[in-house]
């Protein structure tokens, strides 16, 4: 016995001793709560596990898998906040191949699978492995980068076990949850925890609204479902806070309400269309509110009305404070973009604004967000769209009014870069909002349509690099943008 005891690591011997002391100290006189048994999730886990899958992807070396820890940054770059997407990535024995894997779940008996967009981004081949060990080649139905969601389709030749969405709006801080997935490629694993917080913004995208959970999730759990205790999906596990890449008990899941909305559009259209007003807004601080004659800093301040955008056709002005949309108060800068994004293009909405110390009513017809990435084709998952979204930037016509507003030469020809998505191809090439693109390859461009046509032509011709003539910072230079 002495020999066996000596071989046990110290930390386990101490844990055992503490456990014995705890048993000794608990007495019938102590509160019932101290003796209450923890709930068992065995029945729920057994019921939902067959619908949880392993998503395996392969990419060529010159088109590596997209995940690199902090979005838009190299994995080894020291960053102040360690928010990481937890996708398991590894090299293949084949020198020119990369492999990775995440998790997903089946929402339809015909084989529709939900996962994260970053799990399948850059993949040339996608395989879904079911709970019974069978493998099936997956087609991409559609994906949405802004919400980091993707929808796949497999054909198994039989009805498959599927799970249902629950109501994430009713989930409360402190509720038990189960995270099911494929950590470190080990196979189906179930971890329990609670909801730690709601409405978390981790600066991963414009519509951040994450559930924070403390269930143990690690690399390979990306895209896996988060279940409530009834076995309904209330989230998709997407990111973790981790200085080392391992679990420290802070994870983030996309709420089911967002997932249902996005997946519904992907299933129907293959892509997601979001409403757009064409304005830049900023938070209304107490100082700004006081200066504008408001009693409290509710609402958002209009910092810019984008030329040729939907709002430019209305009476909305720079300096207006938007305090409500269709009668619903705007409490933070996140509220307005989320509500507009969920509104169908062509819908007329009513904004209550504060202008010159008085309330005004402004009607705006919602447009379509112009830089939306569309679904890749199922036959070629790596084929990009032939529009501005390929490069991760939105361009608008270079009108005389815009030239005056931006202090540009009125004779300048080209298209104006209104917005560049952080971490995108255009951003990495050094293109900034406010630049003017005069040529794509050898073709002059003078409108968003001609720009899109030139990009589409380059994609069709399967060019590796797109050459742009860019006027930026008072200098004209050619920029090479990889396709």
Straight-line distance between termini:
67 Å
Share of helical residues: 10-25%
Q: How many H/I helical runs?
A: 11
Main sheet: strands, sense, barrel: 8 strands, antiparallel
- Gyration radius from CA atoms, angstroms: 26 Å
Q: What structural class is derived from the secondary structure elements?
A: alpha+beta
Shape by Cα distribution = globular
Uncertain spans: 1-27, 66-84, 372-389
Strand content: 25-35%
Number of strands: 29
Secondary structure blueprint with pairings:
Elements: H1 2-6, H2 10-25, H3 32-35, H4 42-48, E1 52-60, E2 83-85, E3 88-91, E4 97-108, E5 112-115, H5 117-120, E6 125-129, E7 135-137, E8 139-144, E9 149-153, E10 176-181, E11 189-200, E12 210-213, E13 225-227, E14 233-241, E15 251-255, H6 256-269, E16 275-276, E17 279-283, H7 286-291, E18 300-305, E19 321-325, E20 328-329, H8 335-341, E21 348-355, E22 358-365, E23 367-368, E24 393-397, H9 400-406, E25 415-420, H10 425-428, E26 436-440, E27 443-444, H11 448-460, E28 465-472, E29 475-482
Antiparallel strand pairs: 1-4, 1-6, 2-14, 3-4, 4-5, 5-9, 6-7, 8-9, 10-11, 10-13, 11-12, 12-15, 13-14, 14-15, 16-23, 17-18, 18-19, 19-20, 19-21, 21-22, 24-25, 25-26, 26-27, 26-28, 28-29
